[in-house]
C-alpha cells in the first residue's frame, strides 16, 4: 500500500499543482515515514522534482519547493530508520524484524517464492509495454499492446490456481524495485509532456524574379500512445485480482468448514493437510479462524506447536512471539475465556 500511496506523490512531483494540491502532496509524503521503503521512494520523488524539465522560472520555484519538502521528509525517514534500528536508541520500539528480512538469504528466498516465475515474466512484458510508446516505430508500439495481452494471459493462468501463487505474499518485499521501471517511464512521459511545441513561421522575398516564399515549422506533439494502455492494464489487474480473490474464497471456506466439522476444540494443522503449498499455508490462519468465529470463538486452530503452547498457557497466539490475552481487550471484542474454560473442564 505504501508503493500505491506513492504514485500520486511521484506524479505530483512532476506537474504544476494548486495550493490545495500542494497540501495533499505534503500529506501524502508523510505516509512514507511508516516504513523504511519510504527512504528509496522519497529519494526518487526528490530527484524527479528537481530533474523534470520546467519551462518557466515560476515553475522552477514551485519545483524547488517540492524538492525541499521531499528532502526534509527523506531526512526524517533516514533518522527514523536509524532510531528504530538500534536498541540503545529506541528501546522497546526497536525493529529487529526489518533487519532479519534484509539478510541476503531472506531476500533470495522471497525473490524465489514471490517473484521468480510468472510474476517476473509478466512484469518484464509490462516493462516493455511501458517504454514502447516512446519508440518511433509503429510496429514497436503495437508490440506494447501484445506485451500487455501476453502478461494478462500468463497472469490469468497463474492466478486461476492458488497453488501457483502460494508464495505471492513475498512479492511485497520486491514491489519497490519492480516498480522502478514504471517510475522511469512516467518520468520520461512527464518530461515529454512539458516540451512545449515550438512553432515558427516567416517568409522571404526574392527580387529577381520577384516572389514571396512562406515557410513554417512546428515541433511534433508528444506521443500519447501510452494513454491507450490504461484501460487494458486496468482490465488485466481486475482479472488477476478477481481470480485470486475467488481462489482465496474457496480455500478459506474449505478451511473454516473443515475446522467447524472437527469435533475437537483445538484443531491442529494436521487436520487440514491440504493447506500445504497453498496460500493457506501461513501462520495467520490461526487468527483467520478466530476472526470468523464471532465474538466468542468456539474453536481454536493451532497452526503450529507455538500456537498450541500459547493456548495451554492461557494466551491466544497471533504470530511469531505475539500473543494476546484470552479476555477481551478495551474494545470488548474477542473473548476466548469460554473456550479456555471448556478446555479446563476436560473437553477435547
Walk across the major sheet and give the strand order.
1-2
Mean pLDDT: 85
Task: Specify the structural class.
Answer: mainly alpha
Topology pattern, helix = H, strand = E: HHHHHHHHHHEEHEHEHEEH
Task: Evaluate the radius of gyration.
Answer: 28 Å
Shape: globular
Low-confidence sequence ranges: 196-201, 204-208, 212-222
* Helix fraction by DSSP (H/I, runs of at least 4): 55-70%
The rounded distance between the terminal residues' Cα atoms is 42 Å
Number of helices: 14
| Largest sheet, strands/sense/barrel | 2 strands, antiparallel
Overall number of strands: 6
**Percent of residues in β-strands:** 5-15%
Defining key terms:
348 residues; mainly alpha; two-stranded antiparallel ribbon; two-stranded parallel sheet; 14 helices
Question: What features would you describe in this structure?
Answer:
There is one protein chain. Helix 8 runs parallel beside helix 10. Strands 1-2 form a two-stranded antiparallel ribbon. A two-stranded parallel sheet has the order 3-4. Strands 5-6 form a two-stranded antiparallel sheet. It is mainly alpha-helical. Residues 196-201, 204-208 and 212-222 have low confidence and may be disordered. The radius of gyration is 28 Å and the shape is globular. The two termini are 42 Å apart. The chain contains 14 helices and six strands.
Amino acid at each position: 500500500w505504501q508503493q500505491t500511496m506513492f504514485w500520486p506523490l511521484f506524479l505530483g512531483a512532476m506537474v504544476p499543482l494548486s495550493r490545495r494540491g500542494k497540501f495533499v502532496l505534503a500529506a501524502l509524503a508523510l505516509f512514507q515515514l511508516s516504513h523504511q521503503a519510504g527512504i528509496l521512494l522519497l529519494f526518487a520523488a526528490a530527484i524527479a522534482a528537481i530533474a523534470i524539465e520546467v519551462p518557466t522560472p515560476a515553475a522552477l520555484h514551485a519545483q524547488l519547493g517540492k524538492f525541499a519538502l521531499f528532502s526534509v521528509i527523506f531526512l526524517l525517514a533516514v533518522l527514523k530508520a536509524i532510531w528504530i534500528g538500534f536498541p540503545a536508541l529506541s528501546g522497546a520500539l526497536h525493529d529487529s524484524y526489518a533487519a532479519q528480512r534484509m539478510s541476503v538469504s531472506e531476500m533470495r528466498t522471497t525473490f524465489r517464492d514471490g517473484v521468480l516465475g510468472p510474476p517476473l515474466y509478466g512484469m518484464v512484458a509490462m516493462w516493455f509495454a511501458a517504454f514502447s510508446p516512446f519508440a518511433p516505430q509503429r510496429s514497436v508500439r503495437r508490440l506494447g499492446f501484445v506485451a500487455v495481452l501476453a502478461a494478462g494471459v500468463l497472469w490469468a493462468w497463474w492466478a486461476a490456481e492458488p497453488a501457483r501463487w502460494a508464495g505471492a505474499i513475498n512479492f511485497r518485499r520486491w514491489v519497490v524495485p519492480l516498480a522502478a521501471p514504471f517510475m522511469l517511464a512516467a518520468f520520461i512521459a512527464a518530461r515529454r509532456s512539458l516540451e512545449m511545441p515550438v512553432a515558427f513561421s516567416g517568409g522571404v522575398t526574392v527580387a529577381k524574379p520577384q516572389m514571396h516564399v512562406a515557410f513554417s515549422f512546428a515541433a511534433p506533439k508528444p506521443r500519447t500512445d501510452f494513454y491507450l494502455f490504461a484501460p487494458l492494464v486496468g482490465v488485466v489487474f481486475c482479472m488477476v485480482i478477481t481470480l485470486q480473490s475467488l481462489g482465496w474464497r474457496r480455500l478459506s471456506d474449505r478451511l473454516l468448514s473443515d475446522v467447524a466439522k472437527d469435533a475437537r476444540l483445538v484443531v491442529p494443522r494436521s487436520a487440514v493437510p491440504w493447506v500445504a503449498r497453498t496460500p493457506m499455508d501461513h501462520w495467520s490462519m490461526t487468527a483467520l479462524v478466530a476472526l470468523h468465529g464471532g465474538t466468542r470463538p468456539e474453536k481454536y486452530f493451532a497452526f503450529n506447536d507455538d500456537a498450541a503452547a500459547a493456548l495451554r498457557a492461557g494466551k491466544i497466539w497471533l504470530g511469531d512471539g505475539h500473543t494476546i490475552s484470552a479476555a477481551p481487550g478495551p474494545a470488548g471484542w474477542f473473548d476466548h475465556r469460554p473456550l479456555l474454560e471448556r478446555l479446563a473442564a476436560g473437553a477435547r
